[in-house]
Amino acid sequence: MGDVMICRKVKASLPDLLLAPKLVPAEVRAHVESCAECSKELKELEATMALMDTWEAPEVTPYFDTRMAGLLREEQQAAPAGWLERMRARLMFGNHMSMRPLAAAALALIVAVGGGTYMGFGGFTQKQPTVQASPVIKDLQSLDENAQVFQQLNSMDQQDAGDNGGGI
User: Fold this and answer.
1) pLDDT tens for residues 58-102?
2) Sign of the four-CA dihedral 136, 142, 144, 150
3) C-alpha distances in angstroms, 34 versus 28, 49, 68, 125, 157?
4) What are the b/e assignments for 30-48, b being 16+ CB within 10 Å?
5) DSSP 168
6) Is pTM, for the whole model, over 0.70?
7) Contact, 14 vs 45, CB < 8 A?
8) What's 52's DSSP letter?
9) Exposure of 10 by Cβ count < 10 A (0-12 exposed, 13-18 middle, 19+ buried)?
10) Residue 77: its pLDDT value, please?
């Protein structure tokens, strides 16, 4: 694990070792000489720099400036793109980091509206209004609920009347 950390630090200073080797500390140079991976990376960087030194920029045609000025003039005189076209171009080719706040705001709005709608459904249930029953209705309901008790009391009264011989 320690070697990995050392290699990371050394790889960060490989360009300095290539461009200004005297400014790089001795322990970095010693590590590159002893580590095969860091040495390979330095050789690859040297090969890339050698190729960059041999590369030559192409010559610009004499009409380049004239054509570029004409293209710029056409672009300036063209009608500006519509809102939808600009948004499409920004989404397809632009930096998506600028769209993050807009996306976060849209998501927050959707969650708020969706959550409010969901919570609002609880209030839409139809509850039957409670009707206050009159005392007469309450008595009738009580008689219905206690009908069995009243039947037993009635049968007991009839037995008592039969036991007494029909008279008192």
Assistant:
1) 888 888 888 999 999 998 888 777 888 877 777 777 666 666 777
2) negative
3) 10, 23, 53, 78, 117
4) ebbeebeebeebbeebeee
5) -
6) no
7) yes
8) H
9) buried
10) 87
